[in-house]
Design a protein that fits this description.
The protein is of the alpha+beta class and 109 residues long. The protein contains two helices and six strands; from the N terminus they run E-H-E-E-E-E-H-E. The protein has a domain at 33-101: Cytochrome b5-like heme/steroid binding domain (Flavocytochrome B2, Chain A, domain 1, Roll), CATH 3.10.120. It has a four-stranded mixed sheet with strand order 1-6-3-2. It is globular. It starts with 28 loop residues before the first strand and ends in an 8-residue tail after the last strand. The relative contact order is 0.24. The model is unreliable at 9-15 (pLDDT under 50). The structure holds protoporphyrin IX containing FE.
Length: 109
């Protein structure tokens, strides 16, 4: 009786926000300069930019002082996660997006 049928909905192709949180247009927008101040050195808050959203990782022991395995908070780390991290973006599941990242330009790559 070892039937392992895929659960319905599990492999939905629909793109979803991390945390399944709707990418709320209601979230405030912050510039890269504002994000940079939350690098764990200049302010108490520690923020990380990822795929257009900003996550507050202040309570994470793994981001203490803004440093995480040679990566620094206060920046857009989208490419770094894809390139360097041994984990997926699901590490953001337990954090809240607190804002949207205001992009200086909308570059294609
Ligand atoms: C050399 C690169 C990296 C290494 C070795 C690394 C390693 C780790 C490890 C071991 C954990 C805890 C275990 C886990 O959740 O899988 C973790 C958690 C996490 N990582 Fe990374 N990581 C790297 C890069 C990044 C980057 C670039 C980002 C951001 C875009 C990131 C964001 C996070 C977050 C948000 C957590 C969850 C923290 C928590 O639960 O308190 N990591 N990382």
């Amino acid at each position: 009786m070892n039937l392992s049928l895929p659960e319905p909905n599990q492999n939905s192709q629909e793109p979803k926000a991390i945390n399944e949180q709707p990418i709320a247009n209601s979230l405030p927008e912050y510039s890269l300069a504002q994000l940079a101040l939350r690098n764990g050195q200049d302010r108490d808050e520690i923020w990380v930019g990822y795929k257009g959203l900003i996550y507050d990782v202040t309570r994470s022991r793994l981001w203490r002082r803004g440093n995480h395995y040679e990566h620094w908070a206060g920046q857009d780390l989208t490419r770094e996660l894809q390139k360097d991290a041994p984990h997926t973006e699901h590490v953001f599941d337990k954090f809240h997006a607190i804002g949207r990242l205001k992009m200086p330009t909308s570059s294609a790559s």
